């Protein structure tokens, strides 16, 4: 998260806790300590790329992909792939390489990629850019499973479930990132949520390829995660 964004998040949470009469000096210190300078995304997909090659590299996997803006990339640049932040380590004429370490492979759906898989891509937010989606870190929290896909005369209503946890949650009209795409939660339950996808998002991203049973990458709203952690820290929730 950038230095410019961090104080805003701190202020929002401080006002929330103050209103609820549970703000503490230790809680705010914990939040400030947790916020570090990180690359930030918005969940607005810039383009899709295609997996061209997959190589096993000891416990890691090297992925070679092609995309419309390959020639604009630089070595050591961060790029969100289905919401997972990976570093460009090599660039060729029409493709680039990223490496996923074992920890990333265990937490995401990258293990399900094959040659030809279409991947949602987003480059880091520029300082002068608009935050059209929401604050996205590119750190996948966990994976979810597509339970249902309903065609509602052009738009699509998708329900996704995930392993129950007190660390992550969704709220109606809140934000969640699915395969790197910033979406608004339509319905929310203990360990599942539903999102409504407009035709443009359906066609422009890899959402159109989803099937029931598919595994998707999930990143929950960062502000909600900090709120949940601080509430838990103060024994407000167990």
From TrEMBL:
Indicate yes or no for the key word Repeat.
yes
Q: Name the pathway it acts in.
A: Cofactor biosynthesis; riboflavin biosynthesis; riboflavin from 2-hydroxy-3-oxobutyl phosphate and 5-amino-6-(D-ribitylamino)uracil: step 2/2
Which residue positions does the secretion signal occupy? none
Domain Lumazine-binding, first and last residues per copy = 40-134, 135-231
Transmembrane helix recorded as keyword: no
Listed EC numbers: 2.5.1.9
Q: Which reaction(s) does its UniProt entry say it catalyses?
A: 2 6,7-dimethyl-8-(1-D-ribityl)lumazine + H(+) = 5-amino-6-(D-ribitylamino)uracil + riboflavin
Q: Name one Pfam family in it.
A: Lum_binding
Taxonomic superkingdom: Bacteria
Query: Keywords, A to Z?
Result: Repeat, Riboflavin biosynthesis, Transferase
Lumazine-binding repeat ranges per the UniProt record? 40-134, 135-231
Q: What is the protein's known function?
A: Catalyzes the dismutation of two molecules of 6,7-dimethyl-8-ribityllumazine, resulting in the formation of riboflavin and 5-amino-6-(D-ribitylamino)uracil.
Task: Quote the PANTHER family the UniProt record gives.
Answer: RIBOFLAVIN SYNTHASE, RIBOFLAVIN SYNTHASE ALPHA CHAIN
What name is this protein filed under? Riboflavin synthase
**What's the source species for this entry?**
Epilithonimonas pallida
Q: Lineage, please? A: Bacteria, Pseudomonadati, Bacteroidota, Flavobacteriia, Flavobacteriales
């Amino acid at each position: 998260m950038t230095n410019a964004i961090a104080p805003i998040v701190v202020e929002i949470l401080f006002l929330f806790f103050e209103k609820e009469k549970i703000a503490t000096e230790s809680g705010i210190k914990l939040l400030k300590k947790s916020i570090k300078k990180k690359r930030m995304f918005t969940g607005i997909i810039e383009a899709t790329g295609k997996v061209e090659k997959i190589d096993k590299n000891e416990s890691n996997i090297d992925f070679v992909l092609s995309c419309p803006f390959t020639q604009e990339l630089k070595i050591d640049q961060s790029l969100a792939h289905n919401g997972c932040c990976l570093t460009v380590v090599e660039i060729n004429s029409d493709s680039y390489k990223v490496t996923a370490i074992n920890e990333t492979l265990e937490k995401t759906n990258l293990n399900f990629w094959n040659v030809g898989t279409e991947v949602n891509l987003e480059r880091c937010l520029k300082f002068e850019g608009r935050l059209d989606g929401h604050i996205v870190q590119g750190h996948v929290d966990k994976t979810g499973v597509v339970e249902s896909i309903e065609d509602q005369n052009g738009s699509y209503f998708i329900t996704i479930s995930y392993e129950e946890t007190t660390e992550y949650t969704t709220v109606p009209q809140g934000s969640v990132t699915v395969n790197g795409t910033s979406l608004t939660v339509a319905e929310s339950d203990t360990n599942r949520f539903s999102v409504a996808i407009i035709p443009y998002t359906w066609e422009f991203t890899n959402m159109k390829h989803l099937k029931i049973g598919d595994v998707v990458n999930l990143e929950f709203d960062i502000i909600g995660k900090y709120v949940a952690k601080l509430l838990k820290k103060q024994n407000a929730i167990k």
